[in-house]
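Reminder: ligand-aware prediction takes two inputs, not one.
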Amino acid sequence: MSYGAFEKVHAAAEDRYERLAYRRAGKSGLDLPALSFGLWQKFGADYSYEVQREIVLHAFDLGISHFDNADRYGPPHRAAQQLFGRVLAKDLAPYRDELILSTKAGNPIGPSPYLRGGSRKSLLTSLEHSLRDLGTDYVDIFYSHRPDPTTPLEETVGALVSAVQQGKALYVGVSNYSPEQTRDAAELLRGAGVPLLVHQPRYSIFDRRPEQDGLLKLAAEDGFGLVVYSPLAQGLLTDKYLDGIPADARARNSQFLSPDVIDDTYRLRAAALNRIAEERGQSLAQLALQWVLRQPQVTSALIGASSTRQLDHNVRALDFPPLLPEELAMIDEHGVHGTGWKP
Ligand SMILES: NC(=O)c1ccc[n+]([C@@H]2O[C@H](COP(=O)([O-])OP(=O)(O)OC[C@H]3O[C@@H](n4cnc5c(N)ncnc54)[C@H](OP(=O)(O)O)[C@@H]3O)[C@@H](O)[C@H]2O)c1
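Here is what comes back for the chain with NAP:
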């Protein structure tokens, strides 16, 4: 299906709920699609509106009803949300009730002290900007994007609670918080009658921190879900870098993925993981997504994509048989924590 510039308002695919499983977010009442879509990279003012629109609409057609944003995403900051707002106004407004829109605040987006950090002023100002950019009265999930040790946690949590009480967010989440910070935030939120819905950590075959630091365990005990970001390690857990770095790949054009990390050690491990995937009749990308989703605490794998082809491919990750213990052991051997990171 094409979504060219002069085409009519998009009519969503009728079979959009037949492709993807939905999973319950912790002990809440909210189900999220097993794959969510984020607009961190290749969305914003520098990219073709038509391509961005096509990817967003294709995701929705595949059943990916959860779109993850942040005031910071661009370039420039706020541009990804403004792009999404344009698509929402033109094409997705009739489906607003079917969408889960997330945004985050607290990462720096400007020189002002009120455009950074976890203060009440910063978080609630950012939320106002996000609602304006997205063109919606409320977001479904409002996150504290990262912990701010210079601000009392009570103040940050209080701003999240206010967002819900003001009807500007339905649920709240935290991202990049340590298990200890998460436990404290969850307790404060519970006390205010606004339970923590989800935590958004980085988790992939090459980033084992949530297994090692106890976050997965805490999620099970505390009853919040995990929406895990960069499950493909920004593309390193696909076959695209096995024979070099393609010209249009993120490692060529993003400040967040340096070509330096694509070294012999990386290639050996990725090639070994690729062979495990091939033995199972799937691609490395599909294996990597299935791998994070094997954890019951993981509500959704939060992916990016630079084409509709990648989305079509990745959505099939859920069609394969569960990973066997011996396959998981082989993945552990080659999926070394820290692979693909800059020193
Ligand atoms: N909370 C936080 O602090 C935080 C931080 C980072 C991200 N996030 C969220 O997580 C979302 C996803 O992060 P991410 O983009 O790093 O996730 P990812 O799924 O690990 O990486 C996505 C990238 O991998 C490549 N790719 C995807 N499918 C592919 C396939 N089948 N074959 C080959 N290449 C493929 C594409 O890059 P190219 O084609 O461009 O190479 C794509 O943009 C973000 O958009 C954001 O919403 C949150």
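The longest strand covers residues 169-175. The domain at 22-236+288-324 is CATH 3.20.20.100 (TIM Barrel). We will return to this case in the review session.
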